[in-house]
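Quick start: read one record
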Amino acid sequence: MATSTTGASVGRGPQLLGQTVVVIGGSAGIGLETARLARGEGAEVVLTGRNPERLEQAARDVEARSSAAFDANDFASLESFFQALATPIDHVMVTAGAPHYANPLEMAPEEARHDLGDHLLQALEVARHAAGKLRPGGALLLVGGTGGRRIARGLEIINSVTAAMPALAASLALELAPVRVNLIAPGFVDTPLSASLLGDDLDRRRDELRATLPIGRVVGPGDVAALAVHLMTNTAITGATYDIDGGQQLL
């Protein structure tokens, strides 16, 4: 005779119980929300960020095991952080950095070189130092974007980096195996970073997206955090790029 079960009777334990999640750039926005969700799923979390005061507050909010204030593009500091990090760790997420919207033909060569290498070199350096710390089957999560897929004048650097990130993630998935590597590619996400980039245009952009996106709402950091935790827990996924933009690319 068949028996029925309910979600309540089956239940589900914390998905990350006993695991350690490191978030590079975890003091606000997507990084902080991912740390909060991972903590809720039983993980110990370690946060880094550039702003010591904001990082300290974030660490208190999520009851982080530890935190470290430094610029993730300072590779000497990044190396020192990983050297001091207790092992093993299970997952590393890299959300540090911000897009730079400027015409590369008007940039000084050094500025253009910095912007081209910012996300790519940062991801490589994190992969280099995390490789010996991550347990087999753990995950390295990179964060890119979808906005740079639309080719446009003045966006040559963002277009180039956006195209390169999926290839980098896939290559690192082979290089670091059995550690898994995946790329999360958000569109607009309603975060403090978006607010700082858009300024007075933020509310107009929110209203526009609510009216036009197929999902009928703006993507928030919690949406990206849910995807990040899924990629930490689903051990069959590696070398993939996951778009999360509410259908923005379809418009």
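The chain is about 45% helix and 15% strand.
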